[in-house]
Each structure stands twice: as C-alpha cells, then as structure tokens.
Design brief:
Layout: H1 6-19, E1 81-82, E2 103-110, E3 116-124, E4 131-138, E5 143-149, E6 152-154, E7 168-170, E8 175-183, E9 189-199, E10 206-216, E11 219-222, E12 225-231, E13 237-245, E14 253-256, E15 264-274, E16 277-286, E17 296-303, E18 310-318, E19 322-324, E20 328-335, E21 341-348, E22 358-364, E23 375-380, E24 388-393, E25 396-401, E26 406-412, E27 421-429, E28 437-446
Parallel strand pairs: 2-10, 12-18, 20-28
Antiparallel strand pairs: 1-9, 3-8, 4-7, 4-9, 5-6, 5-8, 9-10, 11-13, 13-16, 14-17, 15-16, 17-18, 19-21, 21-26, 22-27, 23-26, 24-25, 27-28
Length: 447
Amino acid sequence: MKPISRFSLYAAVIAALSFSATGFAAPLPPQKGSSTKKGADVQKGQPAQDGTIQNKSQGQPGDSDAADDGQATGVGQHAQPNPGNPYDPKRPVPEGSWFKKVHHDFGTHYEQRKMLLEGSYEFQNSTGKDQSIKDIQTSCKCQGIRLFVNGKEAVLARNVERKLEKPIPVPKGAKGVIKLRFDVSGGEGQRTGDIRVTTTDKKMETAILTCAALIKPAYVVDPKVIDLGRMSPVEKKDWSAVVRCMVRKKWEVKSVDPVKPQGLVVKSMEKKADEDGSYYLIKGTYGPDLQEGAYGGTLLFHTDAKDAPFTIQVLADVKARVMIDTTFFSFKSFPRNEPQTHTVSVWPVDPQRDTLEIDRVELVNPAPNFPRDHVECVIEKPGKDKKIVTINVAGFEKQVPGDKLWRLHFRTKPGIKGRVLRFKAKIHFKDKGTPPKLVRVNGFPRG
C-alpha cells in the first residue's frame, strides 16, 4: 500500500477544518441579507448575572450534570450534526396517535461548551383499552428520555440489546409525558433527533417523535482557519485574527488556556470597538524550534461568559528540507591499520523547488580517549550532471538529480587507537532555515 505523505495529511486537515472549524457540524449557509461580521444583524440573547449566555427559544440550556439523575438515558454525547433539516416541523399529528404533537422545535441557540435543551411530548391512551409501550428508543446518545404515566415515572430497564426488558403498562384513559433532554453541546449547525415509541395499539404501532435545534456560532473568528503554508522547523511566522462576539456587544477575553501546542505563541490581544460593538485583534507567532511533521494546532481562549470559550485554528506544514540516506552507520570490526570509508548521501526533500548547501561537518560526543583527528569527513559537492541517481533509503529507492546530490565521505586513518570508535557527525547547512542533521557512527578497531 502506498504510504500517505505528510502533505496529504496536512491537506486533509485543511479540508476537514474548512468543512467545520468547530469539529462538530458543518456551518449553515448564511441567510439572505445577514452578516456574520455585524453583531447587530444577528438575534442576540442577554447575558445572565453569572455570565452564562441565554438563548431565545422554546428550550433553555440546563446543567449537564443534571442529565445523570432520574431515568435519563444516553445524555452526554454530542448531537449528530445535520447539514439540512429533514424533519418537517409542520407535519400533522397522524390519525390515531396518542401524542398532542410529534415534533419539538427548540429554535435557535448560540453555541456553548455545555448545553442541554429540555422539551416534552404529552400523550393519552384514548383507545378505550389498556395498552402497553413495548419499546422506546432514541436515535442517538445525545437524547436523554424519562417516561411518566399518570404522574408516575416508569423505569426504563433495558436488556443487552438495549430494548426494554418488559412493556410499560398504559391503562385506558391514562395520560403521560415523555421528557427529553437534548445535548447540543460543542458546535454550530443544525441538530436533529427522533424518538421511536412502539406500542400494542394497532392504530399506533410505532410513533416517531422528532426534534430539531439550530446552533449558531457565539463567536466569529476571521479567518476561520489561519493557514501559514509550508514552513521549515527553524522558521517563525506571524499570524493574526479578528474575533467578534455575536451575542453581546460588550464582552472580554479573560485568558489564553495554558495548554498550548508547541511553538504557538499569543503576542497581543488588542480590544477595539466599532458601531457593532467590541471585538479583538489577536496576534501571535508560530515557530521556531518546531518538530518536522508538525502542523500547527488550536488555541483556546476563555471569555467572561461562563462555558463559552472560542478557539483559533493555526495550521502549517512543517516539512524537513533535507533528506539523508542514513542517520546511523557502523564501520563494524576492522583492522586498525587499514583505513575505512563510508559515504552518506544528502539532498533536498524537494529537489525540483529547493536547493541546499552544506557548510561543514562537526564531530561531536566522541568516545573517551578517541582522537577527533583519526576520522575525517570530505564533502563532495554536486556536479553539473543532472542525470538521475538512485539512492536506497531503508529499502526504498529515491530518485535524485545528480546536480542536487551531496556526498559525505567518512574515512578512518591508519593506526586508530582504542577499542571503540564512536561519535556523532553534525551536518551544518549555510541556510539558517535548515536545522543541522545528525549521523551516529561507531566501529570496533582490532589488531
């Protein structure tokens, strides 16, 4: 199977974040005449005294810890995002249904880290006969349900197949309610779910109860994803973003979370204001001292609103600029009076776009009592011939143009002393954007 390149992974991350910067739901297309930059064009909730962002809708966010009490089942996972709304909120109640309504519209909310919406579906057994609820299932773990019949809560004990262990009796004329807690924490987008109720009533063998909520971003970050492109491990790049709160005109950024990706630094958070309210211009840097293969990361910012932080995504493709055919070789066991030679090949990762120039090779950390001058390294510069040279790297063949290929010839001198030859060769490059490379070497003189 063909290995996945670092660039392919980086491109995939870019594509995924473009689809959803929050990681939970695809953003909905903007409504005609609306603006994501102007807080005045977006319906606003009012902050409570504790800073919690309140939303104007039929349901109210609750405390996520409350989802674990009673007979609530499956609360805690995020609702499955849906790019559209397949449920018709105006669909009529089917003939013979026990339920007064079959759809609950939770309305529009602004995203928070923790958000539970509460709703209910009232019903009555008007069949004139005793009936039973044989099973009741939700479409995802984001929905927690509790069932009440004549004011008494029914125990929803389940078997290994997650079905009810025994039917729930519903006497004739009995009234009841299904209470729902809908977990829409975490991200923006359309959220939908359904509850399927199976009964002994031939006219309502299965009732499908649906719910929906639209979650809008509480904060808009521009750009949504900061793409710094290709970088070297020793490079440093500046980045900046403008952040607006879509819920309140007056708001504050309190702090940056201390857990940050390596190399990501916030330099300043400048608060500004215009006719639409206050906003922040946040500036920072990425690099240097980055690991090869790094791709940026996410910064978490805490605000004065409880459980309503925002994030800034910074991406980069930190690539190695230099390829080397080995990072370790051994002269093995050899006669100390016979010179030994080993060649290391060095070339740019992207020979079509890039060039490199070796400045020097330094011998570091030699074995005790090992004279440095007993080993020499001769640097062979690339020639003018562009003929392709095949280099074997860990069993894989690399095709390198001859005019981009450097060779390092390591040679031992006759009469080398000691029983162990051990050192590191540190390859320095003239371009300051290319970090040094290390080659470990050992050998065992005898005789």
